[in-house]
Predict the 3D structure of the following.
Amino acid sequence: MDGEVQQPEEYEVGTGVLCVFGRQLKLFRERAGLDRAGLGSLTGYSASTIASFEQARRIPPPKFIDQADEVLRAGGVLSASKEEVARAQYPAFFRDAAKLEAEAVELHVYANQAVPGLLQTEEYARAVFTNWRPLLHEDVVEQRVMARLARQEIFSRMQLPTISFVIEESVLRRPLGGWGVMRGQLEQILLHGQRRNVEVQVLPTERNEHAGLAGPFTLIETKEGRRIAYVEAQQDSRLYTARKPVREIEEQYGLLRAQALTPRESLAFVEKLLGER
């Protein structure tokens, strides 16, 4: 297991921690003498949404959990589940990486399959999860989309992280969701690429040297100075913490950046793609 952090067992909408939370919510609601509409009126949600939370069909947001804990006088029992419930919005293989990403001081991403999640628009993210195989339930698709957008709060943190992306040209030319969706996605890449703490580089298809043929990855540096590599493939993932495998991936990323267009050239390239559509 040298250098690897194993992922927790899978739990999805309708199972595990969400079912436990849903049962607790229902018990506290009934103890308070409230029906679903009554709890909904006190927290700003519809009765059908409260039913979805109780039946573990939707993942309740942290704000609702705190509200419910207070109005139902749960004494912190519901709020204590907030972190685990929040983790359920991500597929199991990404949960540990999502926590590290949210707290990182540096992130460096190589993407060769789709636009990186941190850069995705809502429409593009929905196209990604709609195309997922095996097919995801509609509730799961919507939850994954909202979770992906929530990750982008990293761009508005008080202490901004340093973030860089190397994206294959083929990714930017693949009209996932249609050209209307892709146009909005390219515009969003331009906007993020103009941030002072973000650099976007495009790796042209015509390059005859390529250091990233093993697949996509993310390099993470924590505020404690730990360097971690996250590697994902076919709904499986690994978090590498040992110095040797992390250093090897860092070397790949350095070469990829050298082989890619510069950040300024890359933004000009994205603008050119937009002009073609």
The first helix runs from residue 16 to 31. The chain has twelve helices and seven strands. Residues 1-11 have pLDDT under 50 and may be disordered. The first strand starts at residue 4 and ends at 5.
